[in-house]
Specification:
Elements lengths: L8 H5 L5 E2 L2 H21 L5 E7 L3 H16 L3 E7 L5 H13 L5 E4 L9 H5 L13 H8 L8 H12 L8 E5 L6 H10 L3 E5 L6 H7 L2 E4 L17 E4 L3 E4 L5 E4 L4 H5 L4 E2 L6 H19 L3
Parallel strand pairs: 1-11, 2-3, 2-4, 5-6, 5-7, 7-8, 8-11
Antiparallel strand pairs: 9-10
Helix pairs in contact: 2-11, 7-8, 7-11
The chain binds nicotinamide-adenine-dinucleotide.
The site of nicotinamide-adenine-dinucleotide has 25 residues, from helix 11.
């Protein structure tokens, strides 16, 4: 496996197989950066405290939030949950968000999804104070992403760029194809790659010839949420392949597995670099969120 900071000479010699971008090692590097930022925040006497707004009765969703808080805590960041019932109304969720906006001791807000049926997620996201929006989902922060501020964008999109940067390739002038046009992945990744002067194509469910577009990609970002939709023959020789997809599938023998949007082994035989699932973009996204939490605290007005 490749790890950030050094290239593996053995894998480099095997021209026919892509090097695997080790998301866990990359996440470690970002966590170290976060540790340095946290030390600075403490030296400046700043509070670093994240509040996760959660409105669910679902045990698995609550467990996910608890795990997220544990991730913050493990990084030395205080985290608390503002827990609402699964029957909460939009007004109640907005009130919780606005209370946290006003709370001078809270420097970052995370809105746990999904929200109860009938609540407009975007409308709630718009109420988060942009300076506390560590997930990068507020329209202002998406706007800043469009204007070239990488660190303002959604964590997953930042993680994709981190993974591409870790390969050391120069994005400028490259053909980049993104599969997916969501607000948290596809669109911001497209904006970030345009900023870096790649030539960007965004594919989605209305795209007529996905395979044709994908085959042109020197950088291929798969974020469709469709298990192994990118087959080996859709990968250009030497491409950098970033797989964002997280799909739970049931195998013929009944066992459950997590796979990406890319057929890994087939793509690996043609690509130059590739992220695995799991262990690729996922851990990098978590690390980016931690870093954003500390950055927000450092930039908070006092
Ligand atoms: P989404 O459902 O909001 O968007 C999916 C996009 O893919 C849509 O724009 C849709 O047009 C496009 N799409 C779907 N099927 C397609 C097809 N057959 N051909 C072409 N385009 C197609 O999903 P999302 O929130 O952007 O997430 C995408 C995937 O990334 C999911 O698997 C999700 O679980 C995963 N994800 C991973 C992380 C991480 O940290 N690794 C974070 C967020 C999301």
């Amino acid at each position: 496996m490749w790890s950030p900071g050094g290239k593996c000479p053995i894998l480099c010699a095997m021209a026919s197989q892509a090097q695997v971008i080790d998301g866990k090692a990359l996440a470690e590097k970002i966590r170290r950066e976060t540790g340095d930022l946290l030390a600075r925040a403490r030296a400046e006497g700043r509070v670093v405290r994240v509040a996760v707004v959660s409105a669910t009765d679902d045990a698995a969703a609550r467990m996910y939030v608890a795990r997220q808080c544990a991730d913050f805590a493990a990084a030395g960041i205080e985290a608390l949950v503002r827990e609402l019932p699964g029957a909460a109304t939009e007004a109640e969720v907005v009130a919780a968000v606005e209370g946290l906006n006003r709370d001078g001791e809270v420097t970052g807000i995370v809105l746990a999804l999904p929200l109860p049926d009938g609540i407009d997620v975007r409308r709630v996201q718009e109420r988060i104070r942009p300076a506390k929006d560590i997930e990068g989902v507020h329209p202002r922060n998406l706007g800043l992403t469009a204007l070239g501020r990488l660190r303002a964008g959604p964590s997953t999109a930042q993680a994709v760029i981190e993974a591409i940067d870790a390969t050391g390739i120069d994005v400028r002038g490259k053909e980049a194809v993104i599969v997916g046009r969501s607000q948290i992945v596809g669109k911001p990744v497209a904006l970030m790659l345009i900023e870096r002067r790649a030539t960007v194509t965004v594919c989605h469910t209305a795209t007529r010839d996905l395979a044709g577009h994908a085959r042109r990609a020197e950088i291929l970002v798969a974020a469709a949420g469709r298990p192994e939709i990118i087959t080996g023959d859709m990968v250009r020789e030497g491409a950098v392949v970033i797989d964002v997809g997280i799909n739970r599938v049931t195998l013929p023998d009944g066992t459950r597995r997590t796979v990406g949007d890319v057929r890994f082994e087939a793509a690996r035989a043609r690509a130059s670099w590739i992220t695995p699932v799991p262990g690729g973009v996922g851990p990098v996204t978590v690390a980016v969120l931690l870093r954003s939490a500390v950055s927000a605290a450092l930039e908070a007005e006092r």
